[in-house]
Design goal:
4 copies of one chain form a homotetramer.
Chain A: H1 4-19, H2 26-33, H3 37-43, H4 47-68, H5 78-94, H6 96-104, H7 107-119, H8 124-140, H9 150-171, H10 177-193
Chain C binds a DNA duplex (21 and 21 nucleotides) through residues 4, 23, 25-27, 30, 35-42, 46-47.
DNA sequence: AATGAATGAGCTTTCATTCAT
DNA sequence: GATGAATGAAAGCTCATTCAT
């Protein structure tokens, strides 16, 4: 007994990738799923909610990784852990970001999207929480500098990986895994090392001029 | 005699920023430009061509954002300079977020845009170049750590500010200048200080397990 | 064991009053009754039959409104009695306005309703009868002018109160009891005093030109 | 050169009478008018506004009569003038009332209808104004009792004629002009004479019992 | 060049009704 | 009797585009 709700979500996911959101109609979705158009509205309040469900499904894996991150506290190197996190966020969002952006290109969908997120108490801050907790824990273990603010650092990592994915997708950069990982490694390296000169103590030097 | 072609483009640009592409109708554009709907089709083959013209103009402007940065080498504190840069990128992108999103929503527009950018050698890497040059110069002056890769660092700064702007725009966060600047300051602070513990030498410690 | 047929009818009645017919769906009804949508079709041939059953019940009740009025003959003041009557008619109809409107909206329902009313000798003239009898009795007691036709007067009172209720309901006027009573009082006062000049004898003066 | 806006209104008017509102679709209207469906939305904001326009067109005549009523001050007999007014209101609303009621059976149309009325500053009080002014003027001339409130009296007349029309339409009473005029004559007679006993002075007697 | 009325295909959404369980 | 997932035929409305003037 096939679950039509799942079938609809899967068909939407498939069509979203081949056609894009702007040209995707509920008729296409129904045809693609092999069900009546009306059934969509039995399982989802409206088209926006269906699209949102697709995005959620995709993001779920990322969310799990971030939530389980605190379990990694003290294991491996920090750099290894962070690279893994950034890679997960990157991969989890590479295909989703254009869909989300598409929704924001449509005023009506945009508004509805924000409503749904409010209803379900979702938002990127929620997703980042696990990362923030992890960083704070590593900081307490002395594996991270006491000078940084875990929340700000988590935000930086999040923003970099999301925007990388978005940028690569928008510019259609080659995205073989080796390149992605090398790039991420560079970013993490930069964030770990810090840009201030090596004699720094967390205070920023004035120009000597 | 005002040039109606220009007037139409300007109105489209304005409306694209405030309303996004998906619900922007030729009627809206005509009304916004104060001309008849039919006139659009005298000046442009179709709606897509008009939109394309507008987006192209925006992309042309983007690369100028960071051109003047190298002039700041050695002046002020690094932190001050970087905060100013991030703020500039943030503000410059905040308003074109709906246009960027629109490109994700319309596959044909997206593809044409990429072709043009390739032809004319545009693209974010170009825009970041000024920032990279600046960072390298400061590094030579000893005002930045020798351990970082200027290109990677420039990328980090770029990605963070763009994605901040997108996030704030799309999630309809409050964006008064004070909040934006505080946020940016936190990010720069994190990047300057680095996340590795204070005895770091650029090498990453293993977990002591 | 509660009788689901009755439960469905009650829920429909309630919803018809608050929401009107046109947007009242079988889903709403089922939800309101706490049963499955399909069950409606076990108890009623189709939606029309269910609605019909409900409207019929309302019409049955309406004629009782004025039955007790003749009992008031000679008691209180006429004005008090009439104000009470108008208020009763007003209140009794205020809540069924959406149902009356629904009959105008659905031709089939309208026709069936008329047939039933003819068959069973229902109708507003029947309902007004009590009022007419009352007025005639008061006229015989000398408490009402001998110049009026009790039937016409009863009709006037009836029409005014019904239409007041409709108007207030449809225009979403504020309808606190004080306002309603003041309004009714004005109408009764007008009807009691009569519009002809005070030297009137029931005959209408010509303009003196 | 036929005016399509008028053609659409006329077709709607025609179809409204034969089919009723509940089953009247925009497709039917377009077909009936011989134009494209989209054209309706070029001339009217939505279906509600079109329907409303039809009602307005019909009511316009009534409105004119009421507004010109003050010109009749002092001419003919009061009774003649009032009978003419009530007859005009009755005739002008006989076919309109069911349409208006139908709109109120549909929650969405109801709300939209009230919006439109607010936008255009319409409402029954506006229509009654002319009648109120007329009554007040006749009162000053001594042709109407000084004991009545012109506003309340105007309301009574209005409510009676509207509800008569509605009642006759709903009950499908015979409505040949002779019957209608006789009925109206009875109502006016009642209102003129007043219901209080002939020795009245405008004060209401207590029951002597 | 400029207008704006007119088109018509296509969109999302609604909803009475059916039917396997 | 009772369920609720599933249907599919509309419904109201949108909008890029055309064309007579």
């Amino acid at each position: 007994m096939p679950d039509n709700r799942e079938i609809i979500i899967e068909a939407t996911q498939r069509l979203l990738q081949s056609h894009g959101l702007a040209r995707l109609t509920t008729r296409d979705i129904a045809r693609g799923a092999g069900v009546a158009e009306g059934l969509i509205y039995h399982h989802f309040k409206d088209k926006a909610e269906l699209i949102f469900e697709v995005v959620l499904e995709r993001v779920r894996n990322t969310k799990d990784v971030l939530q389980n991150l605190p379990l990694q506290v003290g294991t491996n190197t920090i750099k290894e852990n962070l690279e893994e996190v950034l890679h997960t966020i990157y991969r989890g969002h590479y295909e989703i970001v254009p869909i989300i952006c598409s929704m924001f290109a449509d005023r009506r969908l945009h508004i509805r999207m924000l409503e749904i997120m409010k209803e379900r108490n979702l938002g990127s801050q929620k997703a980042i929480e696990g990362l923030t907790v992890y960083l704070a824990a590593e900081q307490r273990l002395g594996r991270l500098s006491g000078n940084i603010n875990p929340q700000a650092a988590a935000n930086c990592l999040w923003l970099i990986s999301i925007q990388s994915a978005m940028n690569d997708n928008l510019m259609e950069n080659a995205v073989n895994d080796t390149d992605v990982r090398r790039q991420i490694s560079d970013y993490v390296q930069t964030l770990m090392a810090g840009m201030a000169p090596s004699d720094k103590t967390g205070k920023i030097k004035k120009a000597k001029k």
